[in-house]
Design brief:
By secondary structure, the protein is mainly α. It has a domain at 1-88: Rna Polymerase Sigma Factor, Chain: A. Helices cover 69% and strands 2% of the residues. It has eight helices and two strands. Helix 1 packs antiparallel against helix 2 (31-47) and helix 2 packs across helix 3 (58-79). The N and C termini lie far apart (43 Å).
């Protein structure tokens, strides 16, 4: 088996492809597009594996590559006069995503504003990836998948008060992480 930088290529694909597809689907409504972008990500990563410096987790690096590919797709889509906004930004007026509500909506934003928001989301995802693994799953379940608290408690075998503490501490860490990226 071929290894570069002490990372087995087969293991890299097997260990991270499901996560990457899940990440892509959290931002895209098209499963085939998500699969294509994940495949492009893995090919790019394998070709550039010798440049991976181990300053972050391998999964964080792969997610960053995938996120850039998603942003590039949106940029190309915008130039073709289509709507590049993924399912992450639910445009149904009855059910708007929490991040949009905090940002004041996206209905009349320019492509520059949309890309800026996408870069903010990339930074947010990078900060989420820095949380403890269990916390990542809880934050993802709560805010990206919009699961009910009771379901999250059952999924992670925690109490409601423990859920609240994890969410509170995660928000503090995410706030500090984002502040450090924006300064």
């Amino acid at each position: 088996m071929s290894t570069t930088n002490n990372i087995d290529h087969t293991e890299l694909v097997e260990d991270h492809s499901d996560y990457l597809l899940s990440f892509a689907m959290s931002k895209l409504s098209d499963i085939e597009l998500a699969k294509d972008l994940v495949q492009d990500t893995l090919v790019s990563a394998l070709m550039k594996l010798d440049t991976f410096e181990h300053r972050s987790k391998l999964r964080t690096w792969l997610t960053s590559i995938l996120n850039r590919k998603i942003i590039d797709h949106w940029r190309k889509a915008e130039t073709r006069y289509t709507d590049p906004v993924s399912s992450f930004f639910d445009q149904d007026d009855d059910k708007r995503h929490w991040f949009i509500e905090k940002q004041g909506g996206m209905h009349s934003k320019s492509i520059v504003d949309k890309i800026s928001d996408n870069e903010t989301l990339a930074e947010l995802q990078d900060c989420i990836d820095g949380l403890p693994e269990k916390w990542q799953g809880i934050i993802s379940s709560k805010y990206l998948q919009e699961k009910e608290s009771e379901q999250i408690c059952n999924d992670f075998a925690i109490t409601p008060s423990n859920l609240w503490v994890i969410i509170h501490r995660s928000k503090l860490l995410l706030r500090d992480c984002l502040k450090s990226k924006w300064i």
